[in-house]
Inverse folding.
């Protein structure tokens, strides 16, 4: 599942339109937009709100090992090497308040250049630009990383930031900043659409096979230990090239009424799987 | 889909001051350089996935601050050397063999290169001076937790250690590898105290269990080039895996190897069955669902997982006899 976090509704808009997300009317304090396989949460400004929204998104999504998180938002350019309207992928997040550094894994090809990002608690003034050691500046990313890292691996996180200013702007510049952000969507929206979730579950057995074995365990009244041993042996059987578990079906006709019969059935199943 | 290998180099504070780091940065000029404070901030992050990171591994250049030399492990062969040590010039390997213990030992699929070679040399000198058996040389394995020769084209560690060994008369080094890299060492003068040790497995085993490695045939061609040049060569049939029909597969392969490589010119051969620290084994099994190696009946003995003792002995006895068709028994070192 894709989890997308933005700080502002304006940042969420091109995503909602591009991915055809629907507003969840039950969400009020933390707005949520969703469709099957995708969830977008608007956090509000600041890393604390961002961390809360991240945890909220995971709570809704359920299984973190199946998720990939994207944080997309506007940022300030701390160096002249980045262009207004340019979207960049973040390889390092520096939290200006505690000095810590966080590193999302950069494994997948994306048509974006890389940059480092500093997360600040307050807006950074242009006069501070010469002192900054990062390429970009925002107010959320480190909070999102810290919260997300409780649930998931750094390789499940992608941070994309769009340069909308050079740290010197007035409220009158907002429309132009939003325009930069929206126009950049063509460079990063396809990434949101196309990124495939990395398989972290390492499941050997298909859901059908797992369901079948659970049924066997229930019907045969296997103990918890026997159930675990059966799953392990079945996984080994499949990894070693075993095609399916259909050959168990005749065994299912037996309804053991005594422990010794059950154990006999169990041992015979294990023997078959370990052949 | 995956970014190219070493697309990013993480550079630890202060590491850039070392000449070896500059060499690596120059050779991998296209890589994006990310500055970090400590290599562990990247390498030891919680929640990493070794196998997925192996799809696009990154390089971390760092300075080793302590533990420049370790006493040899009981899972490794000492070849009769009483002063048996190893070091870790790099953490992790360019290859990704199914049976490799590194998957269970390291939290990350990325590679760390310690670039302060001068400190390693200095600590090795000290270890030579204080070795417990002064009448014997210090035997140092420099490529245990990595494959140095495979990365020699951009991290010239093997050639540097060979040069260092030339000046240290009481030092013998072993460089273990699966590489077919000849060009980066072609101009290095051989040294009789630098043993190049090749791990060899039958082609069918290598294709299935030694991912990313050059095929054994190519390794054999490379071994012959080094032999012709006068390098001391060791062959390691280790680990032997209990694949179906293993007697014939390994026996035929050994005969094939010695039809291509003159046995009389080989220093020695090591032979060992698959074994692994049981904690590493458990950790790897959780991550790897693509290898049947972790779903076989093993026996745990002294915190190591391996085949049951009787089978182990049978495997070693059978293959030792094959090796003795070509080599005297004293040249075959067996790990049981």
């Amino acid at each position: 599942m894709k989890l997308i976090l933005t700080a502002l509704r304006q940042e969420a808009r091109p995503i909602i339109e591009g991915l055809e997300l629907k507003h969840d009317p039950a969400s009020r304090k933390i707005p949520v937009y969703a469709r099957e396989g995708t969830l977008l949460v608007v956090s509000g400004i600041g890393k604390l709100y961002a961390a809360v929204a991240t945890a909220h998104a995971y709570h809704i999504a359920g299984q973190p090992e199946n998720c990939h998180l994207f944080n997309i938002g506007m940022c300030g350019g701390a160096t002249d090497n980045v262009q207004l309207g340019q979207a960049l992928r973040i390889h390092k997040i520096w939290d200006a308040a505690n000095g810590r550094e966080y590193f999302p894994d950069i494994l997948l090809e994306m048509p974006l250049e890389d940059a480092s990002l500093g997360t600040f608690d307050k807006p950074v003034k242009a006069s501070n630009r010469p002192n900054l050691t990062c390429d970009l500046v925002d107010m959320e990313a480190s909070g999102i990383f810290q919260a997300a890292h409780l649930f998931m691996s750094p390789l499940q996180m992608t941070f994309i930031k769009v340069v909308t200013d050079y740290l010197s702007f007035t409220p009158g510049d907002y429309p132009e900043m939003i325009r930069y952000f929206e126009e950049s969507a063509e460079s990063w929206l396809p990434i949101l659409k196309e990124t495939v979730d990395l398989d972290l579950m390492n499941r050997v057995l298909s859901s059908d096979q797992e369901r079948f074995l659970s049924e066997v365990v229930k019907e045969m009244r296997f103990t918890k230990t026997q159930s675990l041993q059966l799953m392990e042996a079945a996984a080994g059987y499949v990894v070693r090239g075993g095609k399916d578990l259909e050959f168990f079906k005749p065994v299912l006709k037996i309804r053991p009424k005594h422990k010794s019969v059950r154990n006999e059935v169990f041992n015979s199943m294990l023997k078959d799987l370990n052949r | 889909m995956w970014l190219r290998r070493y697309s990013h180099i993480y550079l630890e504070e202060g590491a850039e001051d070392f000449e070896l780091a500059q060499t690596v940065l120059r050779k991998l000029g296209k890589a994006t350089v990310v500055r970090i404070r400590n290599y562990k901030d990247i390498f030891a992050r919680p929640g990493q996935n070794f196998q997925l990171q192996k799809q696009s591994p990154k390089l971390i250049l760092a300075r080793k601050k302590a533990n420049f030399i370790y006493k040899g492990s009981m899972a490794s062969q000492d070849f009769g050397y009483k002063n048996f040590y190893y070091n870790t010039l790099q953490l992790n390997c360019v290859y990704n063999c199914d049976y490799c213990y590194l998957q269970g030992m390291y939290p990350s699929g990325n590679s760390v290169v310690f670039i302060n070679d001068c400190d390693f040399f200095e600590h090795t000198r000290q270890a030579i001076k204080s070795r417990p058996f002064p009448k014997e040389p210090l035997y140092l394995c420099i490529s245990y937790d990595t494959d140095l020769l495979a990365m020699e084209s951009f991290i010239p560690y093997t050639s540097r250690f060979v040069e260092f060994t030339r000046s240290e008369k009481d030092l013998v080094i072993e460089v273990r590898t699966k590489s077919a890299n000849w060009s980066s060492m072609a101009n290095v003068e051989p040294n009789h105290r630098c043993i190049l040790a090749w791990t060899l497995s039958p082609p069918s085993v290598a294709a299935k269990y030694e991912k990313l490695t050059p095929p054994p045939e190519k390794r054999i061609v490379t071994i012959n080039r080094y032999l012709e040049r006068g390098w001391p060569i060791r062959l390691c049939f280790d680990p032997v895996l209990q694949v179906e029909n293993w007697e014939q597969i390994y026996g035929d392969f050994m005969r094939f190897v010695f039809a291509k490589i003159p046995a009389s010119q080989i220093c020695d051969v090591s032979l060992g069955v698959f074994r692994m620290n049981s904690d590493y084994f458990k950790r790897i099994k959780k991550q790897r669902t693509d290898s049947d190696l972790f779903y076989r009946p093993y026996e745990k003995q002294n915190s190591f997982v391996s085949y049951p003792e009787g089978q182990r002995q049978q495997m070693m006895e059978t293959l030792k006899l094959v090796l003795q068709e070509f080599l005297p028994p004293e040249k075959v070192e067996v790990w049981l």
